[in-house]
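Data deposition worksheet. Section B asks for the primary sequence of the deposited chain exactly as it was used as input, without tags or linkers unless they were present during the calculation. Section C holds the resulting structure in token form. Section D is free text for depositor observations; keep each observation to a single sentence. Incomplete worksheets are returned to the depositor.
Section A, Depositor: J.P.
Section B:
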Amino acid sequence: MSRLNDLLRQLEANEKTAAIAKELRTEYDALADRRAFGLNFERHTPETVELPGRPVRRGDKVHVLPERGKNPTQENSRLWRVIAIDRATGVATIEDSSTEPAETQEQPATELVVVAEFRDPIYPGLASTGKVERGGDKPFHTVINAENYHALQTLLFTHRSQVDCIYIDPPYNTGNEGWIYSDKYVAGDDHYKHSKWLAFMERRLLLAKELLKPTGVIIVAIGDEEHHRLRMLMDQVFEAQNFISDVVWQGGRKNDSRYVSNGADYMLVYARDESALATADVQWSDRKQGVDDALLAASTAWAEADGNATLATTAFRSWIRSNRGRLTDGVARYNAIDSAGRVFFAGDLSSPNPRPNLRYDLVHPHTGLPVKMNPNGWRTSREAMDKLLADDRVLFGVDHTSTAYYKRFLSDQTQETVGSVFERDRRASGLHLKKVLGEGRFPNPKDHEVIARWLRIAGHADDVVLDFFGGSGTTAEAVMRLNEEDGGTRRCILVTNNEAAAADAKKLRKAGHRPGDQEWEKKGVYEYVTKPRISTVATGVRPDGSTYSEGLEQNVEFFDLRYEAPLRVSSNREFAKVAPLLWMRAGSQGRRIDDVSAGFEVADTYGVLADLDQTEPFLKALAEREASGAEIRVAFVVTDDDRLFTSVCRDLPEHVEAVRLYEAYLRNFEIEAGRSAR
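Section C:
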């Protein structure tokens, strides 16, 4: 390795070879950073993403688009750099410096697509593409159409160490899914498919880790194919001591198994810091399946029986028989209603072992004589028995010749300790999504009730929940429905791209369409499934205008991630694109500041000072907003002067975070680009 270092230094010292030396140094550092022991894979292969619709600028990296009606070839994945654009003709001059000598050619700019390598700095903005406002002053859920790696970099500016729970359902790498890496489909017979998948996942998990709070957790769904590798990768990224659980989701026999099929998927659960999580107020318990339904049925039976316990019990037992398939045995055994309308079952009050100190007389309330007692005595002490009697938790027989029983109430059994295995039929989620959209648009979506279960178990009612493999939008629906269920104010951030399904892409290409065309984009998963699904659940109205439900009292906004020029951002010419990021950093709540042409503006949770000559009225407006009951969390100050920024910070209230624009914004993405080169 020392010899390689010497050769690299010689190349770096030569002006003619300095550029290639820089590239070699990046690859050398990546190789040198490999583990000598553990999970090893090729980390240094650059990952790229095409950005259709992004205007071509001088200096951009680009691909030449395939001819319409033709499939992409190896030549279309060749990387060029734009060295000039003739604005009059729209023709760009592009260069490939990897050849000797460098090759140049001219292409219409409309035949080029901008390419971002993940080691290049990006300067993102968000453009709103619609919203649903039905939740009053509740925080907004955010749905972002973007490549998820760049979205994660963006969220490091808005939500670093602020996310409570991450749930993701990444590609399972079965070889037949057609997930995209470096602009190519990774085939099942690719010898590097596991290495590529691990590199793909590691890049995203490293960023995800920084988004989690110290008490945050991440839940990753995975199948048999990569389960063992993912467990090792997460041990490396999150550290083995932060492993929480490996949950088995038993959902029926898998059709593709030739031998023994366990029909299982898995969910790996890790803490950001298990020692911090151990002190957090998280129950790690779940509501027993069927308890709420049984309590509601019992309440109905009690009301219809006009308080007659015998009639109510008969009607309730009839309901249990007809709903047996929906209830666990642990719930179905609560099959009686007492004179107070409480659902119970009669448990044993006898001591399981001989206990002389538990042998005492228990008097029957009607005959006044001691009731029949087990030779071992009663289960509880005299003091504990007196409390049970006072709470009407003892069930007596007709007279003293029969024993007494312990009335266990169903209302006490709503919570259960979470197990590492649970069952749920996978077919229900597909039928549910078809009902939401009014037609089948997406195969094998995840189950929103399953995700809601785990979000309820691992978190709180005011959590920030992130899913950066958003797919059909299941996580967003789960969060919205959870909020409606318990009055919570959880915020979901959901990220998905607008990739078209492989079969649709083939048809679209044959029809002469390409990514970026309107016909292509409207068939992408974001436009065709995710956005209409979340809109339908929130509003209750399907894409075709038909009624699905009454809707939910939730707020949602949809965004496209855009790539901005850093000079335009730093000169405050792209404020409208950066504005949603500032709003998200302040909590995604209330009015957003989209214009600061007046020099400053103050909203419900934050303020922006763009003209430091307006500092005094800005500070006054902040104070007035807080006096009226607003909770100002952040103040964004636009200045490149350290001294003036410090002066403004000094006059801000202590609880208000001061963020300097655009230095904090630009620096965030330059740092992340430098790290992703490794």
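Section D:
Residues 178-185 have pLDDT under 50 and may be disordered.
The chain has four domains: 50-117, 139-284+418-552, 291-414, 571-676.
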